[in-house]
Amino acid sequence: MTAPIMTRPEAPSQGASSPASAPAPVAALPRKRRTNPYSWLTESLGKGVAHVFLIAWAVIALFPILWGVFSSLKANDEIFASPWAMPEVLQWDNYVRAWNEADIGRYFWNTIVVVGGSLIVTMVLGAMVAYVLARFQFRLNRPIFYLFMVGMMFPIFLAIVPLFFVVNDLGLLGTHLGLILVLSAYGLPFTVFFLVGFFATLPESVAEAALLDGCGHAETFFRIMLPMAKPGLVSVGIFNFLNLWNNYLIPLVLNPDPEKYVLSQGLASLAITQGYAADYGALFAGLVIAMLPVLAAYLAFHRQLQGGISLGALK
Question: How many C-alpha atoms does 157 have within 13 Å on its Cβ side?
Answer without folding.
Answer: 0
